[in-house]
Amino acid sequence: MADWISIVAEEEEAGKRIDKFLADFMPNMSRSYLQKLFGTENILLEGKKVKPGYKLTGGERIRLLIPEAVEPKIEPEEIPLDILYEDDDVIVINKPKGMVVHPAAGHYSKTLVNALLFHCRGGLSGINGVLRPGIVHRIDMDTTGVLIACKNDAAHSCIAQQLKEHSVTRRYYAVVYGNLKEEQGTVNAPIGRHPTERKKMAVNWKNGKEAVTHYRVLERMGGYTWIECRLETGRTHQIRVHMASLGHPLVGDTVYGPAKCPFSFLHGQALHAYILGFVHPSTREYMEFTAPLPQYFQKLLEAARIKSVSGTKKILNP
Fold first, then answer.
1. d(CA 252, CA 260)
2. Taking a C-beta distance cutoff of 8 angstroms, is the pair 156, 125 a contact?
3. What is the structure's pLDDT at 314?
4. What does residue 23 show for φ and ψ, rounded to 5 degrees?
5. Side-chain-facing half-sphere of 57: CA atoms under 13 Å
6. Who's near 240: CB < 8 A, 6+ residues apart?
């Protein structure tokens, strides 16, 4: 049975948000996980429920109860994996299009986690909880490419710290609508929840978190542009939101772009994580992995080139 933790916020903590204070006090707990406990009986300030944005005045007593871990109901599934690299600490995967990374509402099977649980015989890090064992970062369901999972907590902490410090190399290929004006550029605009559509993200100058994307043009194809994006940060939907903010949403992205894709064979955004580089948790050597350009992406480039030359406006289905 879980025990209550009693914490006193010292006077020098005055003015600090209570969620930030608790995240600093308990570095092994993510701030997002702690925030889910606010508004419940698990976090009490002077015996009362409190919101995560409450600012401490100093001297308050906080009582915290971390719920006991619930055994995962996620079943191992024998799903083929395209493994780029594997050792006792990490496994690097080339994720296919349409695969969800970790279980969530509506997706409790056939996820990457289900496949990893089978392949690794359950030997995955547990820091991110029972629904996301081994998962230290993620890419969207319809985004393809390189993704790393961790097999133990030490490796997980090491990679997570590198992500926090923005030292992980992450390069993506994307095809966007329109002809970008510049050959290269940087979008430095904070990203947060959309103010009215809660399932979407948006550039949010008031409440968003720092987000930086560097891009450069690889090929211009009439009404489409093939670009490379390099991430400094890793916010949810970052490339999709940033490119849409420039007026150049990703082809196939019906959330941040046109509701109808002009290429009927394309399902979801044209976004491929093709390079991932990091310092290995044990050897401390820099390692870099490349995921080959997938067939759907090659097909899109060929179709966009044909469309550019022909000037046709009909929906292509080569």
1. 8
2. yes
3. 40
4. -65, -40
5. 3
6. 140, 201, 249, 250, 253, 255, 256, 269, 271
Round to whole Å and give the CA distance between 235 and 239.
9
Eight-state DSSP code of residue 53: T
CB atoms within 10 A of CB 87: 14
User: Any catalytic annotation for residue 140?
Assistant: yes
Pinpoint the alpha helices (H) of 140-287.
153-164, 238-245
Rounded Cα distance between 318 and 306, Å, is 10
Distance CA 19, CA 228 (A): 37
User: Phi first, then psi: what are they for 205, rounded to 5°?
Assistant: -75, -20
Among candidate residues 19, 140, 142, 253, the one labeled active-site is 140
Tokens encoding 99: 């695969």
pLDDT in tens, 199-255: 799 999 988 999 999 999 999 999 999 999 999 999 999 999 999 999 999 999 999
Which are the contacts of 173, defined by CB distance < 8 A and separation ≥ 6? 218, 226, 227, 228, 229, 271, 272, 274, 293, 297
Say what the pLDDT of residue 313 is: 43
Of 124 and 310, more confident: 124
Question: In Å, how far from its chain's centre is CA 311?
Answer: 37
For the question of whether the overall pTM of this predicted structure is more than 0.85, the answer is: no
How many Cα neighbours within 13 Å face the side chain of 171? 16
